[in-house]
Each structure stands twice: as C-alpha cells, then as structure tokens.
Write a structure and sequence with these properties.
about 260 residues; alpha+beta; nine-stranded antiparallel β-sheet; disordered N terminus; binds 2-oxoglutaric acid
Length: about 260
C-alpha cells in the first residue's frame, strides 16, 4: 500500500494500491512519496556511517557558509561556520550507500517510473544532507536539472529520510505539476531560483505542498519539479540521503560535470 500526499498545506493521505497509480501520481505531480521503503536496519546503518562522517569531517563536504543561502553563517570562520550541509560522494565512503542505492526495493520502484534500464549517476547528489537546528539555511525554489547536462531533462532525484521531516524542521516542499510547466528565464534569478518577488511566481508558490516524511520514507521527484526547503527550526538535525538516476538512453553530455562515474542497474 503506497501513500501519496496530495493537498497543499493540509496533508491528506490517499492509498495508491498499484504501480500504475504510483506512476500516474508521479506523472501528474512530478513527485511521489513511498512510505517505509527502507527498513529500520538500513536507516540505522546509514545513520551510523553519517555519524562517522560527522566525526571526521573528511572532505568532500559542503559547508552552509559556502553557499550563503538565507540563514547560513556569514563565513566559515563565523559562529557555526564549520557546519556541514552536505557530505558529498557518499557512495565511495561506506558500502551501505551503494547497497541502498542499488537495492531492488528502491531500483524497482524507480524503474516503474523511468523505464526498465536505469543508471545511477554519481556526479550529482550522491550525498547525505544534514540540516542543523542552529545553523541551517533556506533552499529556494529550484529544479535539480538546473546545473545538470544530459540529452533530455528526464532524471529523478531520490531522497531517503533518515529522520522525521516536517514543516518545523524544513521538510521538502513541492510545486505539483511544475515539471510539466514552461518557466520563462525571466521568472528565475541569476542562480536559477524562482523569483519570489514576482506575482506570477507567488501564485505558483501558493500551491506548494509540504511533504512530511518519517525515517525510512522515500520521495522520488522529477528533475524539473520545483522544490524548496526551509532552514531547520526544530531541535534535532534533519538528515537525508539523496541519489540521482537516469534512464540508460538519456546520456550525459560529453565533457560536462554530468559525464562522470555511473553505475548501471
Ligand atoms: O533540504 C534542502 O535544503 C533542500 C535540498 C534540495 O532541494 C536539493 O538538494 O536539491
């Protein structure tokens, strides 16, 4: 039984009984929630690997201060300046990450959405995100494809919640159906975030959905679906692991950052 959150602000759960219904929900909204896809043991092993990365702070990491999003520490030497937002390249840090990313329970669900032959791109996401309760920031409305270069803008991002996510600790928010919209370049700022000062965009943003998740839940979303997440105003860190997949016939553009190590599944 699969649950999809369908209305903005107030969450109703609708049971999606079949993979056809999951696919229809994904095609319509540009995202789908698969509750409890990862078992507790997987979540615990990933959390243990994350705790180790947090202890050692071994690069590559992305500091909150580096991006300078609203709410971030002003520099890496300011209070909280060494707060890590992302532990990158996790697939090569601990076997549990590849185990999860290539597990049939997950990859079969992805195949239902983008076709029977899929490839895990290690160039994008491939990270654990940690939103700290004291020093995190607001991620504006964006499409993941904005800096990726493939033949077609048809990839999926797959986020596994490692802890509960809600409107207080900054869960993902989506603009349903935005993967099918034509957005003009003048609706975006120079970093390709949706400009929140435009009435046209405000109208879209009023339709946002807060995707609350429990540890073990998975959100799969289209790389053109606009999404955002606020800083963490809760008491505990909000953690998730994110990977990116493409259909095997959607090749990266040679010579770009997207043209990197991959795993065929
Ligand atoms: O949790 C967040 O701040 C959002 C992360 C996100 O949207 C992304 O990595 O694309």
């Amino acid at each position: 039984m699969i649950t999809q959150t369908i209305s903005a602000q107030i969450h109703h759960s609708v049971h999606l009984a079949s993979s056809e219904e999951v696919r229809a929900a994904f095609d319509q909204d540009g995202y789908v929630l698969l509750p409890g896809l990862a078992v507790k043991e997987t979540v615990e092993r990933i959390l243990a690997a994350t705790a180790k990365m947090q202890r050692t702070q071994e690069p590559p990491v992305e500091f909150e201060a580096e991006l300078g999003y609203p709410g971030a520490p002003s520099s890496e030497s300011a209070p909280g300046g060494q707060t890590v937002r992302r532990f990158k390249q996790v697939a090569s840090r601990d076997p549990v990450f590849k185990e999860w990313a290539t597990s049939p329970i997950l990859t079969n669900a992805i195949k239902e959405l983008i076709g029977p032959n899929i490839v895990l791109s290690l160039a994008h996401h491939n990270c654990v995100m940690s939103k700290d309760p004291h020093f995190s920031s607001d991620t504006g409305w964006h499409q993941d494809i904005r800096y990726w270069r493939f033949q077609r803008p048809e990839l999926v991002s797959v986020l596994l919640a490692l802890s509960g996510a809600n409107s207080i600790n900054g869960c993902l928010r989506f603009l349903p159906g935005s993967h099918r919209m034509n957005i003009n370049t003048d609706q975006l700022d120079e970093d390709l975030f949706l400009r929140e000062d435009l009435e046209q965009n405000q109208e879209l943003i009023r339709r946002q959905i807060f995707l609350e998740m429990d540890a073990g839940d998975v959100a799969i979303f289209h790389c053109r679906t606009f999404h955002a997440a606020s800083r963490n105003r809760g008491a505990e860190a909000r953690k998730s692991v994110i990977f990116t997949y493409r259909s095997s016939d959607n090749l990266p553009i040679p010579g770009t950052r997207s043209d990197a190590e991959e795993i065929s599944i």
